[in-house]
Design a protein that fits this description.
alpha/beta; eight-stranded parallel barrel; binds ligand LLP; 2 domains; Lyase, Ornithine Decarboxylase, Chain A, domain 1; nine-stranded mixed beta sheet; TIM Barrel; globular; about 425 residues
């Protein structure tokens, strides 16, 4: 469920016409619905209510300070993957004590920073990392809380670039090695074995892989808990969202339709996983990113030109793969709708950006309403891994971001100034003569 709907002929975010936002803030523009963010968090929080639990929002999906503050205010923790992200948590008003630090390449500096800030746990991904954390903690006269990330070698049935829980992937520690690593880590004086973690992949649309992975690691987790007095277990993030039909799924009636039956919801997740997790008697952490913010954001773009070549109808827009890379990188589907409903038969169209790459497209051969220069389109479900993966490729400034709550809206990030793109660069002195 989300709050992007047509009211009359106009697309609205909550109670605000998106066209009004475009007029005020320009395009390309990311628009986030605060209510959608909050409700997704709350739904998951409620589904996990029978357990002692903590949701750590995987902020890599969307690290806008307003979005993060929304979640921090609801009691969310954060899953961070760099010292920069931890600094962002603090800037957003989040609590480092509710943060877990994941990632395969933590540097000494990052470990030191996180230790000084008192994070909840390092999710460690290799044995040398444990040795390094122990060393830094010794120097700081601290004990570092850690959880080993188990790679359970389970197929997640998602896109290859976002599968993480098989032995083809660089992530975690192989299931068979985990017990011996806990044993060796337990001898390190500055390591506090606090939990166990895993994460098998992203955009999972069925509960089976989660269930399979949890069932596989459960006996091991119970054994480690008994031996080392662990406090928590995290089955990670990865809950998928609806990309198609993204708009229909914002309609309460759609959730009663046959199509909605197969959707992975927090309730389905809880119904299948809680009975497995509850007997563990551990605190349960979760690290969802996409589920919380994915359907809560759209990218709005202006049609600049329409061009018909021998074969195709190209709709050329002012957003491009630097603003939203998911279609180019993962062949991802984002529903595309005009901000103002159009009449007439759909035309098979490619919506493309202005970057000099053939991969710079948002959709191919998709039946879309006929649009022309000056029309606006919304790319739906762009709240996760949208702005977060944006770049300055082709010297294109980063888009602006707006947060909507009811009938209010605020600029959550102003459009980047073009000069800011090269503000950190200098011309080598010998070139200046
Ligand atoms: N925990 C760990 C250890 C992760 O690696 C990830 C995502 C998450 C949690 C959050 O996963 P989520 O709940 O959002 O599925 N850029 C890609 C997705 C990359 C996911 C990376 N790791 C995309 O746009 O589809």
């Amino acid at each position: 469920m989300h709050y992007f709907r047509f009211s009359g002929s106009q697309l609205h975010c909550e109670d605000v016409a998106v066209a009004d936002l475009v007029e005020k803030y320009g395009t390309p523009l990311y628009v986030y619905s605060q209510r959608t963010v909050a409700e997704h968090f709350q739904k998951l929080d409620q589904a996990l209510a029978p357990l002692d639990h903590l949701i750590c929002f995987a902020m890599k999906a969307n690290s806008n300070l307003s979005v993060m503050r929304t979640l921090a205010n609801l009691g969310s923790g954060f899953d961070v993957v760099s010292a920069g992200e931890l600094e962002r948590v603090i800037a957003a008003g989040g609590d480092p004590k509710k943060c877990v630090f994941a990632g395969v390449a933590k540097t000494e500096k990052e470990i030191e920073y996180a230790l000084r800030r008192g994070i909840y746990s390092f999710n460690v991904e290799s044995e040398p990392e444990i040795v390094r954390i122990n060393e830094v903690a010794r120097r700081l006269k601290k004990r570092a809380p850690i959880a080993v990330r188990i790679n359970p070698n389970v197929e997640a049935h998602t896109h290859a670039k976002i599968t993480t829980g098989t032995y083809e992937n660089k992530f975690g520690i192989a299931f068979e090695q985990v017990e011996a690593i806990y044993e060796r880590a337990s001898k390190l004086k500055h390591i506090w074995l606090r939990g166990v973690q895993m994460h098998i992949g992203s955009q999972l649309t069925s509960v089976e892989p989660f269930e399979q992975a949890v069932k596989k690691v459960l006996p091991l987790v119970a054994k480690l808990k008994a031996k080392y007095n662990l406090e928590f277990f995290s089955p990670g993030g990865g809950l998928g969202i609806i990309y198609n039909p993204a708009l229909a799924s914002g309609d309460p009636a759609w959730w009663k339709s046959a199509a909605a039956k197969d959707i992975l919801t927090p309730d389905t997740y809880a119904a299948r996983l809680l009975p497995l997790l509850q007997p563990l008697g551990l605190r349960i952490l979760m690290e969802p990113g996409r589920f919380i913010v994915g359907n809560a954001g759209i990218l709005v773009t202006r049609v600049e030109y329409v061009k018909r070549t021998g074969k195709k109808n190209f709709v050329i827009v002012d957003a491009a793969m630097n603003d939203l890379i998911r279609p180019a990188f993962y062949d991802a589907y984002h529903e595309i709708v005009p901000l103002a409903k159009k009449k007439g038969a759909p035309v098979s169209s490619d919506v493309v950006g202005g970057i000099c790459e053939s991969g710079d497209y948002f959709c191919k051969d998709r039946p879309l309403p006929r649009v022309g220069e000056g029309d606006y389109l919304a790319l739906l479900s762009a709240g996760a891994y949208g702005f977060a993966m944006a770049s300055n490729y082709n010297a294109r400034p980063l888009a602006a971001e707006v947060l909507v709550k009811g009938n209010r809206h605020a600029l959550a990030r102003r459009r980047q100034a073009v000069k800011a793109i090269w503000a950190d660069e200098t011309v080598a002195p010998w070139l200046k003569q």
